Amino acid sequence: MTLRLFAPLFILAAAAPPQETAGGGKIKVEAVGLHINKAPYLGDKDFARPMEPTPGTLVSVLVVLDEGGIIRLDANKSKLAKFADDKGTDLLAAKPAGDSFNSGPIGAFPKISKDQKAILVDLQAAAAPAAGAKSLTLEGSLSFTVGKDQEAVKQEKVAARKDAAFKVGGLEFKIKEAGKNEFGDDPMRISLESKDGLKVARIRFFDSAGTEIESRLDSHGVMSMGDEATHSWDFALKKLVQTVTVEVAVWKKVTVVDVPLKLGVSAGL
After folding, report:
1. Cα separation of 215 and 223, whole Å?
2. Cβ of 251: how many Cβ atoms within 10 Å?
3. Residue 2 and residue 58: Cα distance in Å, rounded?
4. Which residue segment(s) compose the domain that 211 sits in?
5. In contact, 139 and 125? CB cutoff 8 Å
6. Which residues contact residue 225 at a Cβ distance below 8 angstroms, ignoring those fewer than 6 apart?
7. Running DSSP on this structure, what letter comes out for residue 10?
8. How far apart are CA 222 and CA 217, in angstroms?
9. What's the number of domains the chain is made of?
10. What is the pLDDT of residues 91-114, one digit of tens each?
């Protein structure tokens, strides 16, 4: 049996009062989605619809910041201490199956909005609520890296070629790939990487005349090795150029915010 509820209309008492950060901003935490999946037939572990999630319970939580921007969720510092139903079932007690994509209580793929004001985080357990349960309680904390106040800095005449290195506002970048786009309609692709990625709020490109080149961010990834992280960005550009001006909006202040989590979710389970 699978139950999906992704409309806030059906989720009652699911929002915590707005919380104030150390810098005076406010953060709103709200449950916006509920997914419950039970094993359909224990006699055959493969007896399920293709691509159906493994048994368990998932609550999608929306976190909204009123000032500054959300840079990332630190899943290692975030904790889900309680995930239980009103029958007393500890949903965290069950261990995910070995072939499960469940990476732990804090979902592995949070999604940040384009304006960096909001992030969607999945909180999950490997067990479903008990029969007749009417509500769920979640307690813990979410740790975010957030930025405040931006400064736009430009570096002109950057050679748009592979392995070219440049600095913008004290941040070091390297071009991994650049040139004609072989796989899409946009004339040019350019891929950048930097170990200073946490301070980057936005990247734009300009031609030699100072006109902004329309661009689209197709992907942004982070590769971590110990305490060091390398950020990468892959852009599609509407104009093919040999040299480019790169503008980076840099976060002037980067801090860590720990948000207490205490939610009650009811959906008539």
Report:
1. 23
2. 22
3. 11
4. 149-254
5. no
6. none
7. G
8. 14
9. 2
10. 999 887 655 556 689 998 899 998
